[in-house]
Design goal:
The chain is mostly helical. It contains six helices and two strands. The chain has two domains: about 50 residues, no CATH class; about 60 residues, 434 Repressor (Amino-terminal Domain), CATH 1.10.260.40. Helix content is about 45%, strand content about 10%.
Amino acid sequence: MLAHMKMRHTENFTEIIVSLPGADDMGLGRAIKDKIVDMGHTVQERLVNDEGEELYTFEEAFPEAHPGMILRGFRSLEDMTQAELAARLGVAQTRVSELESGKRRISLKMAKQLASIFGTSYKSFL
């Protein structure tokens, strides 16, 4: 097994980048992390793609996002107005507006209705 490690020192930190081949070597990555934590340090992990670019979670990339934004996106992809969606759901257009703006939470029942309309998983809207 060939592992690569880079270290970069700044004024207050040392950045350690470890590249391990294969998914089976994640145990070694966990062991390194556990040892650093045992020494009293905090570990901040960041996943990278094959090109070495850092990957971010949806929450990190869009910290103010909410399920209503997903709803708006699906509706826009289908070129559907709020009024058209409201009619299909059997609710007032103002309800769709409130859902999209985040003023009203999307219930499980509503999420399942939306999933049926847009042909996706209800989990997209929760």
